[in-house]
Amino acid sequence: xxxxxxxxxxxxxxxxxxxxxxxxxxxxxxxxxxxxxxxxxxxxxxxxxxxxxxxxxxxxxxxxxxxxxxxxxxxxxxxxxxxxxxxxxxxxxxxxxxxxxxxxxxxxxxxxxxxxxxxxxxxxxxxxxxxxxxxxxxxxxxxxxxxxxxxxxxxxxxxxxxxxxxxxxxxxxxxxxxxxxxxxxxxxxxxxxxxxxxxxxxxxxxxxxxxxxxxxxxxxxxxxxxxxxxxxxxxxxxxxxxxxxxxxxxxxxxxxxxxxxxxxxxxxxxxxxxxxxxxxxxxxxxxxxxxxxxxxxxxxxxxxxxxxxxxxx
Amino acid sequence: xxxxxxxxxxxxxxxxxxxxxxxxxxxxxxxxxxxxxxxxxxxxxxxxxxxxxxxxxxxxxxxxxxxxxxxxxxxxxxxxxxxxxxxxxxxxxxxxxxxxxxxxxxxxxxxxxxxxxxxxxxxxxxxxxxxxxxxxxxxxxxxxxxxxxxxxxxxxxxxxxxxxxxxxxxxxxxxxxxxxxxxxxxxxxxxxxxxxxxxxxxxxxxxxxxxxxxxxxxxxxxxxxxxxxxxxxxxxxxxxxxxxxxxxxxxxxxxxxxxxxxxxxxxxxxxxxxxxxxxxxxxxxxxxxxxxxxxxxxxxxxxxxxxxxxxxxxxxxxxxxxxxxxxxxxxxxxxxxxxxxxxxxxxxxxxxxxxx
Lengths: 313, 356
Known about the structure:
The structure holds 2 protein chains of 2 kinds.
Chain A: E1 3-14, E2 20-31, E3 35-39, H1 46-53, E4 61-66, H2 71-81, E5 82-86, H3 97-105, H4 114-120, H5 136-148, E6 154-158, H6 166-181, E7 185-190, H7 193-199, E8 202-207, E9 210-215, H8 217-223, E10 228-235, H9 241-245, E11 250-256, E12 259-264, H10 267-281, E13 284-292, H11 295-303, H12 307-312
Parallel strand pairs in A: 3-7, 3-8, 5-6, 6-7
Antiparallel strand pairs in A: 1-2, 1-4, 8-9, 10-12, 10-13, 11-12
Helix pairs in contact in A: 3-4, 3-5, 4-5
Chain B: H1 9-14, H2 17-30, H3 33-53, E1 62-67, H4 72-79, E2 84-87, H5 92-100, E3 106-109, E4 117-120, H6 125-142, H7 161-191, H8 194-199, H9 205-235, H10 243-264, H11 271-288, H12 300-308, H13 310-322, H14 332-352
Parallel strand pairs in B: 1-2, 1-3
Antiparallel strand pairs in B: 3-4
Helix pairs in contact in B: 2-9, 3-7, 3-9, 4-6, 7-9, 7-10, 7-11, 7-13, 9-10, 10-13, 10-14, 13-14
């Protein structure tokens, strides 16, 4: 198994009062040719981790290997082999798409033609348009073209779809998939769970500067509460948590006043038993639903918090 | 297509990262109309406004009244002077009234055959001037022809206010262009996280800094050429000294303020911070360094510090060349001060510079 990225015991602290422990003993392994997602709420340490891997900041301690090399000895080589799209970068508004991509192309000894990079992000019709006349989604695709024009082996996409409308998000996803098909490795950060499920073969959930779970989205969901979720609302006195956990097929359960969430591998067995339990307890059912479990459920299960709540802060 | 095709040298040149970075700066600059006005239009407007306001006006007519029968020789001599307007045969009381209300500036009274009486208002400069003219006419009427003094009028080049102003404006523009053009642009790129994005590519940092300075040099050259041509056409301001020395001084002055701009921008990452720093650096020099009036008007105790300011040194060198006709050697001390500022600023800036 060839690793595009491996890092061990990564630590980075920003000085301040109190100091901010952005990354604490973070471990990560990204296979070549895969699309890897770093998930977590804002402030979890995703961006710091990414910037260390991109060679923009240096870690306080820990081993970092990117494409089998170290930033300490091969910075110039690494810069020519990676591509970066930072969500926060604002490219110059008064340049055209073509001019912007041509500028970035000039920094690389090898790579594709600007026209080819622009075609990869489907902006051929906008080559001569200034960035000030583009939508947010189109600008993000220009940033992607800039990251592709050096024909990198490894791409870092920091929150590639944050702030984009649903259609633009899907366009960015299509571009990412086509890059995977071309054999590129992608490391992306996101706090959209659906994005990770759509794109990533492997994800790492990051919270408070450390990875708290790694695996494929399916495996993580299965391991943290089963493929399905049953949600029920009722009136009356709720049964004990243990009673829900004892239901056939149930893997996890959470009870809050007049609501219950139950994770299960086999909803056909769990659901009738759950209804029976509520009836025996004398509760009246008000609402009932089942759905496929998501990475969001994994995060809630691991931390007791919702990603959304956290990112609103 | 992988790699650059075996294209012509011109294609390779245009795709060189330094050329691309400079092109990006040039496009950014010329595609912002407001900035173009402040850089190119505004200095011309200042030159036009101040050059017109402080133009030396020809002296107006001086009115002299005479009461009684003033000697004919004196009358003829005064009438011959085009600056003077002679009103003869005024009533004595009216003459007093006209002098008091400023309608005339000198009253000549001839009573009988005695000496003429000159009544004047010592508080008015035009009265003193009229007085001097009458005295000189009286003097000339008693001096024999072969002893009359010869009067030569000479137009002194580079002595008008506008001649003084234009080099000051060039200096001011080099300061503003260097500090804003390099400093503000750098902080803008840092705030937009573009700097961070650029240094994550294999881009050479030297190329980046060079592109900022070289593009600014280009903008400055156009700006100064415009200002010099404008002031030559409109006001007849000409360059008295060595053109080579002038180019060297402009080059070194521009580079000095670019280095200062880099220093000011080395750490700031917000527009507010860089605005404050810019004003801190520029305001004292606007006032002290002799842009609009000579810095020698400040007290002697301050002259040492003022003389060491880069804009003072630059303005001094520019005026020596443009107004006094000095050559390269004469401006070496000023160039030395500028070079010192440039080297110290640049070294400090590279030490402090934050690429993120």
